[in-house]
Automatic annotation (TrEMBL):
The enzyme's E.C. designation: 6.3.5.2
Gene Ontology molecular function terms on file: GMP synthase (glutamine-hydrolyzing) activity
Residues annotated as binding ATP: S219, G220, G221, V222, D223, S224, S225
Protein name stated in the entry: GMP synthase [glutamine-hydrolyzing]
Gene label: guaA
Positions annotated as active site in the UniProt record: C76, H164, E166
Source lineage: Bacteria, Pseudomonadati, Bacteroidota, Cytophagia, Cytophagales
Enzyme class per UniProt: ligase
Reactions listed under catalytic activity: XMP + L-glutamine + ATP + H2O = GMP + L-glutamate + AMP + diphosphate + 2 H(+)
Role: Catalyzes the synthesis of GMP from XMP.
Domain spans labelled GMPS ATP-PPase: 191-382
Assembly and interaction partners: Homodimer.
Pathway linked to the protein: Purine metabolism; GMP biosynthesis; GMP from XMP (L-Gln route): step 1/1
Pfam short name (any one): NAD_synthase
Keyword Glycoprotein: no
Length: 507
């Protein structure tokens, strides 16, 4: 594997993505917790950082355990750090070095750079630049403005590059990463979904005792479903899936998802707890209070159901890699914008050990593994859906009647997206029921009914998002259908806010 030492750059996860696309396994570790060099680490990448090596408190770890032992590639800050530590001169750049640049001189015979043509576009994003290289460092590529765009340390497989090969704007970035990972580090490109499934099934069988029972909360989403399939393959019916109907699911979702799990042969039990959730939510209007009530009730219901499983030792979770690695926060912990409800606090309460088979995977890798395990297309490509469900899409207090109205409007929107081939073009979509009534006219009648907002976004990871530019004709059709078919709604609006500053959900 390749080890990526993270210095807090926004691009660190992208480095991991690029390496994994080469079918090579890699892990990100914060520089403050750099692991010992073991035999399976074939190479090290030093990430970028928002810091400058010239700042007194900038990351400055001792890298001697790696240097000269395995190939090392410093990217941006990583490159500047190596130069700085060895007596080179890193200064503020006099010309802005952000955005596109072209490599005009390249040592094409160099094994890090072969396949890169002169003129190759690269993406720069740094305020500092390497002015003078230390003794024993050789420049191997440059741009008109940046003399040392890439260097090597003589006699070692240690390299530094000041541009970002991991972003798609660096057109030969993939080639460069491949040169490093495959040619220089000698990694085999054998980390495939099938390989992952085989290795994970064996690992799960080794970890989970032969008579241990495992509990897993299922949501109908990709992550928990893939986790279930992996565990099912490893331990069969000793996996006990629990799927809770919180009364805030999409229309027909509960029945549909249970049926799909049945077809897959999974041992999953459905629990209809709608009334308990409605009771806990009665009269609550504040978004955070609603989220907390839903979270609390979920834990109560899940705990009660889990107690019924004799011999339960493990709680499985569909945690994925982005949940695990938060890029090192150089500026302190991030603020909580919304308290996400999933199963936080559950394991301590239940005294179970945790097993997380997807911990090492990015979302699209989870999909590939799901595909290899035969998960049907409709679950594999399902939009993300928040744990608190329609509870955070009904603004104000929640009643079963409002849920029923929203379910019908939401189904019209989602079915419409599917029918027009738009569903998989957007990252997530749904309808918000607003606590606003407006006047309308239907036939000769005056109406005074509720407003819904359609929300559809494009995104890569949900962290940032843009409103989806859906065709007007399509929006018109959905609006007509909702107003004609859903009693209680007489006005439909489309949300054209991006995230930030808005969020995807309205609460
Ligand atoms: P926001 O509204 O913060 O949402 O832009 C970002 C993504 O997270 C989902 N979301 C949640 N998912 N539990 C979840 O499992 C939650 O409490 C929760 N709140 C928001 C949201 O649907 C979007 O995909």
């Amino acid at each position: 594997q390749i080890l990526i030492l993270d210095f807090g750059s926004q691009y660190t996860q992208l480095i991991a993505r690029r390496i994994r696309e080469l079918n090579v396994y890699c892990e990100i570790h914060p520089y403050t917790h750099a692991p010992l060099l073991t035999e399976d680490i074939r190479g090290v990448v030093l990430s970028g950082s928002p810091c400058s090596v010239r700042e007194a408190d900038a990351p400055n770890p001792d890298l001697s355990a790696y240097l000269g032992q395995v190939p090392v590639l410093g990217v941006c800050y990583g490159a500047q750090l190596l130069a700085h530590q060895n007596g080179g001169e890193v200064l503020p750049a006099t010309i802005r070095e952000y955005g596109r640049a072209r490599l005009t001189h390249i040592n094409q015979h160099h094994r890090l750079l072969h396949g890169l043509e002169p003129g190759s576009q690269v993406w720069m994003s740094h305020g500092d630049t390497i002015k003078t290289l230390p003794d024993g460092f050789l420049a191997i590529a440059g741009t008109p403005d940046v003399q040392v765009a890439a260097y090597e340390i003589e006699g070692q497989s240690t390299y530094g590059i000041q541009f970002h090969p991991e972003v798609t704007h660096s057109t030969d970035g993939k080639q460069l990463m491949k040169n490093f990972v495959v040619d220089v580090c000698g990694c085999q490109q054998d980390w495939t979904p099938e390989h992952f499934v085989d290795a994970m099934v064996t690992a799960l069988q080794d970890t989970i005792g032969e008579t241990d029972q495992v509990i897993l909360g299922l949501s109908g989403g990709v992550d928990s479903s893939v986790a279930a399939l992996l565990l099912h393959r490893a331990i069969g019916p000793r996996l006990h899936g629990i799927f809770v109907d919180n009364g805030l699911l999409r229309k027909d979702e509960y029945e549909g998802v249970l049926e799909a799990y049945k077809v897959l042969g999974l041992n999953v039990r459905g629990v209809d707890a709608s009334q308990e959730f409605y009771a806990a939510l009665a009269g609550l209007t504040d978004p955070e209070q609603k989220r907390k009530a839903i979270g609390r009730t979920f834990i109560e219901v899940f705990d009660r159901e889990a107690q019924k499983v004799e011999g339960a030792r493990w709680l499985a979770q569909g945690t994925i890699y982005p949940d695990v690695i938060e890029s090192v926060s150089v500026k302190g912990p991030a603020v909580t914008i919304k308290s996400h409800h999933n199963v936080g606090g559950l394991p301590e309460k239940m005294n179970l050990k945790i097993v997380e088979p997807l911990r090492a995977l990015f979302k699209d890798e989870v999909r590939e593994v799901g595909d290899a395990l035969g998960l049907p297309h409709n679950i594999l490509h399902r939009h993300p859906f928040p744990g608190p469900g329609l509870g955070i899409r009904i603004l104000g207090d929640i009643t079963p009647e409002k849920v029923a109205i929203l379910q019908r409007a939401d189904a019209i929107f989602i079915d419409g997206l599917k029918a027009h081939g738009l569903y998989e073009k957007v990252w997530q979509a749904g309808v918000m029921l607003l606590p606003v009534q407006s006047v309308g006219v239907m036939g000769d009648e005056r109406t005074y009914e509720q407003v819904v907002a359609l929300r559809a976004v494009t995104s890569v990871d949900g962290m940032t998002a843009d409103w989806a530019h859906l065709p007007y004709d399509f929006l018109a059709e959905v609006s007509n259908k909702i107003i004609n078919q859903v009693r209680g709604i007489n006005r439909v609006v489309y949300d054209i806010s991006s995230k930030p500053p808005a969020t995807i959900e309205w609460e």
